[in-house]
Amino acid sequence: MSQTIKTILLYWFPVLLYCLLIFIQSAYPSPIKGASIPHMDKILHFGGYAFLGALFFRAFNASLPDSKIKTIIFISITTSVLYGLTDELHQSFTTSRSADIMDFAADTAGSIFGVLTYCLVSSKISFFIQKKAKITKKSLRTNP
Predict the structure, then answer these.
(1) What is the rounded distance in angstroms from the CA atom of residue 84 to the CA atom of residue 42?
(2) Closest alpha carbon to 82 in 42, 54, 52, 126
(3) CB distance 49 to 107 below 8 Å
(4) 30 versus 16: which is more confidently predicted?
(5) Range among 6-15, 30-39, 74-83 with highest mean pLDDT value
């Protein structure tokens, strides 16, 4: 299997699938609102777009290995935020839904949080894996 096909299947397919799930969910009328948790819809928007931002970062990072990390962060946030904007536009055409600037703000904040958190966590994990590999190599040299 070529590297391009692996990249598409492992990194871009999850992004496309999640975008499709967001689109389908946005095509249905809004669920009945209860008084359980205040601003629950904003929390869901934030979390949903944090996950989408992380997926975009993961995919762009795998697809653009020679790019600077700042560029990948910028592209990931921008793409996730733009998808949030199109989702709000889509909801404006859906019965019993409407575009909401505060939903878009939650989408934007979630996208930024998701990208930066994924970037930070993945770099820490990578650092510890490399550190462990160096320790293992060192111990193999000293213990034949």
Answers:
(1) 13
(2) 52
(3) yes
(4) 16
(5) 74-83
11 DSSP 8-state letter: I
CA distance 21 to 23: 5
**How crowded is the C-beta side of 54, counted as CA atoms within 13 Å?**
14
Which residue, chain included where needed, has tokens 């462990």? 132
Please check whether residue 99 is in contact with residue 88, taking contact to mean a CB–CB distance below 8 angstroms.
yes
CB 88, CB 30: distance < 8 Å: no
3-state class percentages of the chain: helix first, strand second, coil last, to nearest 5: 80, 0, 20
Q: 113: how many CB neighbours lie within 10 A of its CB?
A: 17
The total domain count for the chain is 1
What is the residue type of 69? I
Tally of residues, the chain: 144
Helices (H), 1-144: 3-7, 13-27, 40-63, 69-92, 101-142
Specify the pLDDT at position 41: 87
Mean of pLDDT over the chain: 88
Domain limits for position 61? 3-29+38-142
